[in-house]
Amino acid sequence: MDLVTTALAGNRRAIARLMTLIENGQEAARNAIAQLYPYTGRAYLIGVTGSPGAGKSTLVSQLARAYRSAERRVGIVAVDPTSPFSGGAILGDRVRMRDLFTDPSVFVRSMASRGNLGGLARATADVVKVLDATGFDPILIETVGTGQAELDIAQLAHTVVVVVAPGMGDDIQAIKAGILEIADVLVVNKSDCTDAERTAAALEMMLELGSGHGARRSALSSDFMRVAADDASQSAAAATDHWHPLLVKTCALVGEGIAELVEAIAHHRQYLETTQELGLRDLTRLVNELERIVRDDLMKALLNGIDQVSLSDLVARVVAREIDPQTAARQLIG
Fold first, then answer.
1. Run of H or E residues at 321
2. 65 shares a domain with 29
3. Both 48 and 160 in a single domain?
4. What domain range is 271 assigned to?
5. Is 245 exposed, middle or buried (0-12, 13-18, 19+ CB in 10 A)?
6. Per-residue pLDDT of the chain (334 residues; tens, 9 = 90+)
7. Do 220 and 204 share a structural domain?
8. Do 23 and 92 fall into the same domain?
9. What ranges in 179-307 are assigned the alpha helix state H?
């Protein structure tokens, strides 16, 4: 049996090997994804993001346990930052979630960001496809956790959970543009802390003042294939009311509020499934993925076709201020 067939049969070692091929960018990975793709599209994707120290990993562990208690097969993809100097990553989620590794119905994959910005690794979407095709549902995706610009998860997940911890900023922090605007569910974790009520009140104020949240997913997509996406976006906008993010208070360390969080996620899923928003999000996700692949392949083809002597000459001219970088780039493309 080949690797894909073995993975589809539920072999965990084969699943892990497929993920390694994907992360390493090997050509065999593309063929594997092509074989797996018809089996995808069944899992519900839940993104968990937020600043470092907010308790994302502990919350993901508790969510996994809650879904396991309902006899669901749970996939977890946890992304850790890569050092820009050594290229290494701690992959600390393997330590925090070690009690889940012994459960045959839970698959945890830690992966390094490998310098990719936006909170996810370049291979995250394809690793999620492997878990989807092999029967894991839901799939929890934990982002790096580096700040307010982690927006890639909004293009991948069906439901985005943004985790906030008390005492990590003043009231103005709660209403800043950026990561909070991608939330479908807001979680104030560590709710036993003294500032928890104040943080929750600030977020409630932000939610009351916020508007246009329901249109954010289509706004996150680029101009690529805009014509293909426009009809679906307009029909979905006409058919649905905007989603108003829910606020949940948890203390993940002891499991408080986890049942309420699961209920909030289920409520959001029900909203997506009873409107056209779920189809719109899937369309936006696939369009963005197609754009990324086209962009990457075109860049590789361009770089492979450039004469290194000409490139060195252009770089030298840019350094000498004889030509500006934009003009040099146009010459390379031309």
1. none
2. no
3. yes
4. 40-275
5. buried
6. 589 999 999 999 999 999 999 988 878 888 999 999 999 999 999 999 988 788 888 999 999 999 999 999 999 999 877 654 445 545 555 566 767 878 889 999 988 776 565 557 788 999 999 999 999 999 999 987 655 555 788 889 999 999 988 876 545 555 455 567 788 999 999 888 878 888 888 888 777 776 545 445 544 555 555 555 555 555 444 444 688 899 999 999 899 999 999 999 999 999 999 998 888 888 988 898 898 889 888 888 888 888 888 889 999 999 999 999 999 988 888 7
7. yes
8. no
9. 196-209, 216-220, 226-239, 258-273, 277-304
For the chain, the domain total comes to: 2
- Exposed/middle/buried for 81, CB within 10 Å: 0-12, 13-18, 19+? middle
The residue type of 36 is L
CA distance 54 to 144: 12
Q: Do 5 and 87 share a domain, yes or no?
A: no
The reply to whether 325 falls in a domain is no
Structure tokens at 98: 């070690």
pTM of the model: 0.84
Task: State how far the Cα of 334 lies from the Cα of 328, in Å rounded to an integer.
Answer: 10
